Structure formats: C-alpha cells, structure tokens
Amino acid sequence: MVNINTVYTTVLYILNKEQRGYVTPAEFNSLASQVQEEIFNSYFPDGNQLNRYNQNNQQNDTEFFNMFKDSAYKLFPFERNANFLYNNAATVEGWNLNTADTGTIYKLGEITSTYNTTNPQYDSITQLTSFSDFSKITRSKLTAPTVQYPLCIITRKANRQLLIKVSPQPNALNVNCIFKPTPPVWAFTTGSVGQYIYNAGNSTNFELDTSEQTNLVIGILKYCGIIINDPTIIQTASAEAQEVQANEKS
C-alpha cells in the first residue's frame, strides 16, 4: 500500500514550493481516487502487451526482472475467491455475491460449481456463455449441461448487483475475481486556527503497490494543474508520466 498522507504532503510541497496554489482535502481525495483507478485500469492492457514478449520468447525471465510477472504481481492484492449465495426469489433467482464479501467486482475469473449431493462430489469448472447459447444448450437433450460440465450466464438485478445463473443448479458457487481498489481518503480534523490536521485513524491508504507512489504523485499533480489553471504543471507532469511509462515498458 501507499500511504495517502505521504502522497498528499508531497503534492502540496511541490505546489507550494512553486507558489502555484493549494488543493483542498476534498479536491485531493477526488483526484486521488481518479488517479488510482486509472493506474489500476492500465494493468490489464499493459499486461496484455507484455504477454506478447512471452509468446515471442523475448521476456527476461531473470528473478525480479520479468516485466509480465511484475505487472501481474501488482494485481495480487485485488484477486480473491469470492463466495456467492443462492437467492431463490422468483424475480431475481440466481447467485449473488455474499454481502459479507465487501468490495466491487471488476473482473470475473474461473467459476467453480460444487455439487455435494452426488457421489462422488464434483467441483466443476463452469463455462460462461451468452444468453442465446445458454438457452439453446440447456433446452437440448443432447447438449444439456451436467454436474461435470455446468454452464452459466451473468446478468444484473435492478440494483445493478451481479447475478449468476448456473445449470444444473449447484450446492455452492465460488468465483475467482478481481476487485476494484477501495477509494483513498485523506481524513482530517480542524485545528484551532482552521488548519487541516491529518487523521490517520479515519483515512484510507491507496491499495496500489508501493512502486506506484511516484505515478500517483505525478498523476495527481497533472489534475491539480487543471484545477488551479496552470498549464505548466500539466505539461511537466505529463512529460514525467510518459518518461516513467517508457522506462517501465522498455
């Protein structure tokens, strides 16, 4: 994780050193959340690009210098096996994410259906398909899903909550997921003269890897330039960001 107070004080130091204005905690929190999301979203196209080196046998496989592994490592904190519970309500029948499992799902990975009333028990990898294919396959006696080869579709309820329907109906459903990072928050109390005092207990740090601290500072500074209407900051931060990205991918 990256300490949010370290990032905020660094951003303020750079802005104040050049006497280019001030960013309030509310503004900073909004920018911090936006930049964290941008960096997080970049892992997927970057990983896809770096994987081409593996396919062409051009990857450096020396320990600590494999760029594809480094990129995948940054996603590990957001990957976990999510537990889904069955909801048999007629209007929303299907599997919902357990409310005890907090967070917002970004991507679904391997889906496993467990059938424990059979002998032997099956923990079957479940194929995800489209609505039209699901309807055709489940209605055919020749292609109907089985406990060994189940089939599922994904939809959403009225409240936009993820809903998974599986055929045949399993006893348990577990899904390997990538969850979105929690929005960072720089919390504070107000001092005797109106100053902002950092409150670590109510703050939320960035969930990104510590190697992303520089990218976070640069990204936030870029948006700060827009807020305080200083194109110099935008240009400098953008140039620095491009240099960092070039070094990471070269």
Beta-strand residue fraction = 15-25%
Unreliable segments of 5+ consecutive residues: none
What is the molecular shape?
elongated
Tell me the total number of β-strands. Answer: 10
Written as H for each helix and E for each strand, in order along the chain, the element string is HHHEEEEEHEEEEEHH
Keywords:
250 residues, alpha+beta, 2 domains, 8-stranded mixed sheet, 6 helices, 38% helix
Kindly describe this structure.
With 250 residues, this protein is an alpha+beta fold. The chain has 2 domains: 4-74 and 208-249, no CATH class; 81-179, no CATH class. The chain is built from 6 helices and 10 strands. An 8-stranded mixed beta sheet has the order 4-3-8-1-2-7-6-5, with helices on one face. Strands 9-10 form a two-stranded antiparallel sheet. α4 links the parallel β5 and β6 (151-156). The chain is elongated and about 75 Å long. The two termini are 25 Å apart.
Secondary structure elements and their pairing?
Elements: H1 4-17, H2 25-55, H3 67-73, E1 79-87, E2 94-97, E3 105-115, E4 122-125, E5 127-128, H4 131-139, E6 151-156, E7 162-167, E8 172-179, E9 188-190, E10 196-198, H5 213-227, H6 231-249
Parallel strand pairs: 5-6
Antiparallel strand pairs: 1-2, 1-8, 2-7, 3-4, 3-8, 6-7, 9-10
Nutshell version of this structure?
Helix 1 crosses helix 5 (213-227).
